[in-house]
Amino acid sequence: MKLTAKSKGPSRARAPVPDDVHVPGDCRRVSTVLARVGEKWSVLVIMLLRRGPERFNAIKRATNGIAQQMLTRTLKGLERDGLVTRTVFATVPPQVEYALTPLGHSLSGPVQALGLWALDHIPQIERARERFDEE
Predict the structure, then answer these.
(1) What secondary structure letter does DSSP report for 13?
(2) What is the pTM of this model?
């Protein structure tokens, strides 16, 4: 039996739902969260910030290949979803630091687990792709 959110707020209890019951409203709500989490750059930023707060340019260097505009958009999206905080320091020029929130830290474990799963299964996936492409 799985649990599904039946309320609009986090303070209400979850109602048990049998595994074979599809709740379309839940799928729509979950898909918006999974879209953010499934973005290539979001995953990299979340894993990078697990180590601790970083400044924008350090994140940009560590996520080799990301355009500045894409990194800005990714960080704003993560901040909007409550996964990242942005702190501006009153210096000249101003310094900005990003860090995971407790919610972001709670997501970093499952993201890491998914990455480890992918690493463990890359050979199987590559073989499946080769077989598929040969047909």
Answers:
(1) P
(2) 0.74
- Per-residue model confidence (pLDDT) at position 1: 35
Q: What single letter denotes the amino acid at residue 41?
A: W
Distances (CA, A) of 48 to 36, 55, 63, 64: 16, 11, 8, 12
Count of other CB atoms within 10 angstroms of residue 31: 10
- Number of Cα atoms under 13 Å in the Cβ half of residue 15: 7
Domain layout of the chain by residue ranges: 38-134
Q: Give the right CATH number for 38-134 from 3.30.310.50, 1.10.10.10, 1.10.3720.10, 3.40.250.10.
A: 1.10.10.10
The answer to whether 72 touches 78, Cβ cutoff 8 Å, is no
Cis-peptide, bond into residue 93, ω within 30° of zero: yes
Place of tokens 């709500």: 29
What share of the chain has pLDDT > 90, as a percent? 63
